[in-house]
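thread from #wetlab-drylab

HS: before we spend reagent money on co-crystallization trials with zinc ion, can we at least see a predicted complex? here's what I'd submit
DV: go for it
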Amino acid sequence: MAAERRVRLVERLAEAGAAQPSGVKAKAPDSFLVTNLENVRYLTGFTGSNGMLLLGKDGSARLFTDPRYTLQAASEADCKVTIAKGPMAKSVAKAIEKAGYRRLAVEQEHLTLGASEALKKDLPSRTETLPVSGLVENLRMVKDASELQAIRESVIANSEALEQALRQLKPGMSETDLAAEIDYRNRKLGAERPAFDTIVASGERSALPHAHPGDTLIGSGILLIDMGAFLHGYASDMTRMVHLGKAPAKYKQAYAAVLEAQLAAIAAVKPGVKASKVDKAARDVLKKHGLEKAFVHSTGHGLGLEIHERPRLGRKDSTVLTEGMAITIEPGVYLEGWGGIRIEDTIVVTATGCEVLTPTTKDLRTI
Ligand code: ZN
Ligand code: ZN
């Protein structure tokens, strides 16, 4: 599986030379050093916390890691492995010299300045480095069947974790308490770790789109919960609202508007549609309700081995949606001094439209 991904990547490597940041047309790279760990995992199966992958345009692949991962790399990676005894850059440079590579593509967003300097020091003088961007990330946008299955399982566990945690919710519980309960339930349901810091925001604090749970006690009123977890390495992401006690008319109206926007965005998702058009579908609904200024972020994002991946479903994203993309749809409104409402599902683009993976109800919920 990872081997097929490498074949597709090497095909794209040939095109990378045409898109140098300087705008100068350069020759295509003859090799590629992958340093983003999620990209390394995607291309080899290796899940360790330290590793680099060297790819040649002839399809050769070698994973570099350190002695802590000798056994793990041998069992997980489906390519050759070098265990670097000293600095990894030295081992990589040696391999590049041996293979005679002249034009090494590097991931400009993921190779630190320090690692880049170390590498340049050890590389043969005839080898130049070519910064490239998003080569693997663009491949990762479209998920294969095994990835979609992992996302599906992650989403289902995440939804179950919410139900279990809400059963523990009682007056006097703090936001932190509930967030910890959510994380614990997700772990018990098989997740490796939270996909991001779980958001539990009560009352006016829900107007902060990325509120960190604090020692605020959850009282009557608005409660926003945004949660996700990595399971089999793949992320889930969901936001749900709960109103403690009877919901006032203002809340009901705002909730109905956000839900209408969310459903409109979901209805706009199909292959061939630009990501920005999905964002516009949500924004248009909120505009109709006079809430467009209260919607301060984009409509969604891709997710997979990372919680935020391409595409970004914002005003300016011209990515064309394709079958197999996994994305979130999460419009929200935030009113200072009152609170916020967001509704978020994880969905997959199908051949004819999309499938909403998140099973949790979106009916207005009061406890
Ligand atoms: Zn999200
Ligand atoms: Zn979220």
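DV: The radius of gyration is 23 Å.
HS: ok that's useful, forwarding to the group
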